[in-house]
Amino acid sequence: MPAEKTDTFPCCVVDTSFMAAYLLNGLCSDELSVCAKEIESILENKGQLYVPQLFWYEIENFLLYKCRKNKEGRSVISKADAMDIIYDLQQLPIYTDLQMDNEIRQRVFELAELYSLSYYDASYLELARRKNLPLKSYDKELRKIYKDISRSDLQSL
After folding, report:
1. Crossing angle of the two packed helices 54-67 and 16-23, in degrees rounded to 10
2. Are 25 and 32 contacting, i.e. CB atoms less than 8 angstroms apart?
3. Relative to the CA of 90, which of 16, 56, 96, 126 has its CA 20 to 30 Å away?
4. CA distance 12 to 118
5. Which of 101, 124, 102 is nearest to 112 (CA)?
6. Which residues pair with 10 in a beta bridge?
7. What is the chain's pLDDT, residue by residue, as a tens digit (157 residues)?
8. Cα 64 to chain centroid, rounded
9. What is the 3-class SS of 67-131, one letter each residue?
10. Rounded to whole angstroms, how far apart are CA atoms 17 and 5?
11. Residue 35's closest CA among 155, 147, 139, 156?
12. b/e sequence 88-120, b meaning 16+ C-beta within 10 Å
């Protein structure tokens, strides 16, 4: 499903699972072809990716985890790879939503409670619905909830 056009360019909210698959381009993901095509399409069309503030903590924690050695003494990526990925990430057209006022935090909490989501996942859901943008995620439960809920449900919270 392609990103929606907002005014004149494609935009979407992306979560950590989706960006991680894109950023580890070929290092460990079969899902790459789908997310790479979507991200590349957004970039080619001068689009925008939206994330909540916590995205930056999550994605860098993910990269840190991938740098750590597993039981066999191997890591998925090196520290140098992680630094290159972080640099590349900072070059992308990512808009970080800084509007975490009390009303939004309450809405995130209520979504998390209502749909049995983590507060983290609910923050992506709330941002996508508030901005009226598609949500790109490899979290099946989050995608299903996003698809199932209607705009009026969120407005009633």
Report:
1. 50
2. yes
3. 126
4. 21
5. 124
6. 5
7. 445 544 557 999 999 999 998 888 665 545 566 788 888 889 899 999 999 999 999 999 999 999 998 888 888 899 999 999 999 999 999 999 987 789 999 999 999 999 999 999 999 999 999 999 999 999 999 999 998 885 445 455 5
8. 17
9. HCCCCCCCCCCCHHHHHHHHHHHHHCCEEEECCCCHHHHHHHHHHHHHHCCCHHHHHHHHHHHHH
10. 22
11. 139
12. ebeeeeeeebeeeeeebeebbeebbeebebeeb
Q: In angstroms, rounded to a whole number, what is the distance separating the alpha carbons of residues 22 and 151?
A: 29
One-letter amino acid at 92 equals L
pTM of the model: 0.83
Tokens for 9? 């360019």
